[in-house]
Automatic annotation (TrEMBL):
Belongs to the ACBP family. It comes from Hesseltinella vesiculosa. Keywords: Lipid-binding. One of its GO terms (molecular function) is fatty-acyl-CoA binding. One of its GO terms (biological process) is fatty acid metabolic process. Pfam families: ACBP. It comes from the Eukaryota. This is Acyl-CoA-binding protein. InterPro entries: Acyl-CoA-binding_protein (IPR000582), Acyl-CoA-binding_sf (IPR035984), FERM/acyl-CoA-bd_prot_sf (IPR014352). Residues 1-85 form the ACB domain.
Length: 85
């Protein structure tokens, strides 16, 4: 179950005034999925490139404990908030 700090960070990320760069969004996505669902157990998309990039961003965190992903996600949102808030 996500911590209140994680939930707050997720809300903050959704409310950035400016959209972060694609690479930043993918990192956020990957950490979020790892923190909430753990290791990626889905099949790698073949034709949908957007889904493939998201899949790869999540899969890069394979093996990372969910608690660690949550901590990294919170920290990364705080880092991005200084640029996009």
């Amino acid at each position: 179950m996500p911590s209140p700090a994680f939930e707050d960070a997720a809300k903050q990320a959704k409310n950035f005034q400016t959209l972060p760069e694609d690479e930043e969004l993918l990192k956020l996505y990957g950490l979020f999925k790892q923190a909430t669902l753990g290791d990626n157990q889905t099949d790698k998309p073949v034709l949908d490139m957007r889904a493939r990039y998201k899949w790869m961003a999540w899969d890069e965190n394979r093996g990372m404990p969910q608690v660690e992903a949550e901590i990294q996600y919170i920290s990364y949102v705080q880092e991005l908030a200084s640029m996009y808030q």
